[in-house]
Structure formats: C-alpha cells, structure tokens
Specification:
The protein is α+β, with helices and mostly antiparallel strands and 273 residues long. Helices cover 20% and strands 27% of the residues. It has a single domain, classed as Double-stranded beta-helix (4-Layer Sandwich), CATH 3.60.130. The strands form 4 sheets. It has a 7-stranded mixed sheet with strand order 1-2-3-13-5-15-4. The protein has a 3-stranded antiparallel sheet with strand order 12-6-14. A 3-stranded antiparallel sheet has the order 8-7-11. β1 and β2 form a beta hairpin. The structure holds succinic acid. Succinic acid binds next to β5 and β14.
Length: 273
C-alpha cells in the first residue's frame, strides 16, 4: 500500500511503500505521477535500483535526456549524469538555484536523483522551491506584467558553476521562454526564471531587466516556498522541473557525496492566457 506523506503544505512529499527497482504497476506509476504533480517533488528512501532500473523508471515518464556537457562516467549509459563531490572538487553541480537545463529549447520535465553516498558528518541537502506558489504570491499587477514577458536562458551563465571548467568542446545552448509558463499537465501558472540560467528579460532594457530579475530571484527562493531534503544513502528525489527550482548545498567539503541522475525530456514552455 503506497503512502504519501507531505513534507510541508506548500511543497514536497515522501512516498512510502513503493520499490522503484520495479517494474511498477500502472496503478503504482499513476500514484507516483499524481503525487509529483500535487507536491512538485517527491522523495523515496532506501531504494536499491541498479542503473538499468533507474533508467527504466525514468523512461516510464518520457524519453531520457543526455546532457550535452556533463562528464559521462558510464559511456554505455550516456543518460546517467553523475553527481559527485569530494576532496578534489572545485565546484559541484547545482549549487546555484536553477531549473535543470532551462537553456534548452525544450527543458526537461523532471529529474530523478539517486544518491548513494552522503557526507560523513551531514550536509549536502537539496532545497526545492515551488514556483506556482512564487507566482501566485506576486501582486496581480506584477503577475499581469510578467505574462507579457519572455526571458533568455543561457548555459554560458551556468558554465561558471557547473560540473567542470568549460573546455574547447563545451556547447552553449540558449533559449527564450515565457517568464510565466503554463504547466502542460496541471494547467497552473508557474514563474519560470532562475538565477542559474536566466540572463535577460527580452522586452526590457538591461538595467530594468537586471532589477526585475534580481527581485524575482529573491522572491522565488524565499523559505516559505521551499522544502529541504536530507539525504540518506540510497534516497531518491524526483522533481517536476516545470514547477520547481532547486539548489544543492555544498557545505560538506572535503567530504564525499555521490549519486546518479536520470533526466526526463520535456516540451517547449508556453503560456496559456
Ligand atoms: C542537480 O541536479 O542540480 C544537483 C542536485 C543535488 O546534487 O542535490
């Protein structure tokens, strides 16, 4: 029997009673999917999925994404993105608030992170912020204005704090998206700008854009929209990239943290008036 335990009234739920190593029945899959849509990010404990099972679980939600720049530890599994930090690390993935790969024309619908090793003395939590709630908390006038705007998302911005130093083979995708997007499954509106990738509101001057974006970043990352997940070995988080942004805490150097992420492809963001 699957049990859904909300972490906060705004965001996050733990799901108990499901083995992601699967195969999941259609009913189990629907329950997980519904919980993801309702809570924006869902968590599972003590999951012993192999890489193949992790990929198979992700593939139940859509085609798997291959990151253009992240190092591939398993050449036979290019869809596996390794999340790894230790004594040699100069940077870690996801330290700045972001929505995964929002610089893609079709950013991922979601990501499924399976952490195997956690830092010895704690730390390495991940924070998730509900972007429906962030949009809904803005004044009606600001909500209306933002729905007339689009923004540029550039991977060049995130290159300073992702995975590794940019090399000669680095690709720099960029895209323009509505500042407010309609979720394709729930129909709800969510704020869709983030500190990691968003560089410019296209309809504004650079100075205006900088001020509005800084205000939106600070607004969207407020603790009242956030839940914080404490990892244990073999925990899994599955987040809806269309409705949340997230930030990984690197507060455990030089300790080691290690896991695998599978990312599910999404569609082009749109705004339904
Ligand atoms: C990420 O996928 O952005 C990294 C999240 C984490 O390491 O907690």
């Amino acid at each position: 029997m699957i049990e859904i335990r909300p972490l906060t009234p705004t965001i996050g739920a733990e799901i108990l009673g499901v083995d992601l190593a699967g195969p999941l029945s259609n009913q189990e899959l629907d329950t997980v999917h519904r919980a993801l849509l309702d809570h924006c990010v869902v968590f599972f404990r003590d999951q012993r999925m192999t890489i193949e099972q992790h990929k198979a679980f992700g593939a139940r939600f859509g085609k798997l994404h291959v990151h253009p720049n992240a190092p591939k530890r398993f050449p036979e599994h290019p869809e596996i993105l390794t999340i790894e930090a230790g004594p040699q690390s100069k940077r870690v993935a996801g330290e700045v608030w972001h929505s995964d790969v929002s610089c893609d024309v079709e950013p991922p619908m979601g990501s499924i992170l399976h952490i195997h090793e956690v830092p010895e003395n704690g730390g390495g939590d991940t924070m998730f912020a509900n972007q429906y709630a962030a949009f809904e908390a803005l004044s009606p006038a600001m909500q209306q204005f933002l729905q007339t705007c689009t923004a540029k998302h550039e991977s060049r911005k995130s290159a300073n704090h992702q995975y590794r130093e940019p090399g000669p083979d680095q690709k720099f995708p960029e895209a323009e998206h509505p500042v407010v997007r309609t979720h394709p499954e729930t129909g709800r509106k969510a704020l869709f700008v983030n500190r990691g990738f968003t560089t410019r509101i296209v309809q504004l001057t650079q100075k205006e854009s900088d001020s509005v974006l800084n205000m939106l970043f600070e607004h969207a990352e407020q603790p009242k929209f956030v839940c914080r997940f404490k990892w244990q070995p073999h925990s899994v988080a599955f987040w809806d990239n269309r409705a949340v942004q997230h930030q990984a805490m690197w507060d455990y150097f030089p300790q080691r943290r290690f896991g695998h992420r599978v990312t599910v492809c999404g569609d082009r963001p749109f705004l339904r008036a």
